[in-house]
């Protein structure tokens, strides 16, 4: 009944302790900021090929560089490897000739054939071939050609490695190397440049290197240095070498043998020391070196200067000519030195000597290995040779 009073509001419903209120899914229980539209929008996916283009450029650059490196490597040359592979096939040529020019390098081929420069063996009397392992063999001249090549033939067997001629020339941009001997008898290898940019031979060769072969990176022969002098020398090509190598070699012009008192190379000879380098050994080395130099020059007066007064009085220049008129000594080693009586010395030396087969005591040979003991006396404050005696039977160069 309406008595004129309004109905009082109902009190709020109590929620028992521990009960959770039921909240409508859409009800807001806390005040939260409205989310930013930029944060709720997913970022766009990068283009599929976004990183592909830099990768392609990187691969192309590295690939091009790698190709250049591979080509540069294929054209480069390691001189040490070439020397190791082909050094044993390069020999030293020594000869007694009428004009004393008999020193060169050479290339050892199959069947005991050696190719060298013709300038080293003009009018030869005797020829010795020294290998890299120190052995010596006699050789004859088969002939020479117009290119300045001389072809020699060993007179006895030699089991050293022999050279191989390349099937073709390397790329014109590929490095080349030359292996030869200097006048002191030391073997070395030189970078010779390329066919397009060759190094000047006069800048890298010693006079003893005439006749030195040229090699490619694999150690196969592709040429040979020939000429009268280093300054006028040139590299004889692969095609020309093939004409004088092997059983089908072209005929060559025989070189006339010398009928003179032939001399060997005139470079100084310094004996090696296989003993301690004491002051006495150094003094012995000097006097025996002077003796060998005078012998090779066929200088009788200079040789007498190395003799004691007593020894010099026992010989004449004619005796010297008969005994040493065509001799050439090389490859000397002093193997023993000891103090002697009266401040003198004794010494033992081995060396190889080339000579004419018609020389006194030659017995038709042209090359022997000698082993001599010297007694040296001190006169005018220097050692001089007073006596020499053989310590062993002379050994032919054709035996080891």
Automatic annotation (TrEMBL):
Residues 1-10 have a biased composition (Basic and acidic residues). Coiled coil: none annotated. Keywords: Membrane, Transmembrane, Transmembrane helix. SUPFAM superfamilies: Trypsin-like serine proteases (SSF50494). The chain crosses the membrane at residues 51-70. Residues 27-41 have a biased composition (Polar residues). Residues 1-44 are annotated as: Disordered. This is Serine protease.
